[in-house]
Design a protein that fits this description.
The protein has 146 residues and is α+β, with helices and mostly antiparallel strands. The protein has one domain. The protein is built from four helices and ten strands. The strands form five sheets. Strands 1-4 form a two-stranded antiparallel ribbon. The chain starts with a strand and ends in an 11-residue tail after the last helix.
């Protein structure tokens, strides 16, 4: 589980504030209908509400970007609240229901890396958001060698 608090950032789009910088936490974290306890969503219209309460990203997809960008990417790098291992996040279908620990979550939309992240820590080409949207896919290409 990864959580973050909002902070001012000149590079953070029109709001000039972001909570994209998520960090792993130890121990149990309550999952509610509007997100994780201790996590802030600054841009609520873009990243909040019941349909976008929790953002999931696969460690395997982070590792693909590590190879592509040539540098380490930590859990929470793409603003994800949950970093999975061994779960085909890119192959998930809207409406699927997952049990993650003691929580039950439902897939409500495809994931696209946040533009704010692309403008900050991953600003070196290729930008994850631009590439994902260009391909029409939420994560790395299917031929990423997994």
């Amino acid at each position: 589980m990864n959580v973050g608090q909002g902070k001012d950032a000149d590079w953070a789009g029109r709001l000039k504030r972001t909570a994209i910088d998520k960090r792993p936490v130890t121990g149990p974290v309550a999952v509610g209908s509007l997100g994780l306890a201790g996590d802030e969503q600054v841009d609520k219209p873009g990243h909040g509400g019941c349909d976008q309460a929790v953002y999931v990203y696969a460690r395997e997809d982070l590792d693909w970007w590590v190879e592509r960008l040539g540098r380490e990417l930590l859990y929470g790098t793409f603003g994800e609240n949950i970093t999975t291992t061994g779960l085909d996040v890119s192959g998930s279908l809207i409406g699927e229901i997952w049990r993650l620990g003691t929580s039950v979550v439902q897939i409500t939309s495809m994931r696209i890396p946040c533009r704010t992240r692309s403008e900050s820590a991953c600003s070196a080409e290729p930008r994850p958001t631009r590439e994902a949207r260009h391909r029409g896919a939420p994560g790395p290409p299917a031929d990423r060698g997994r």
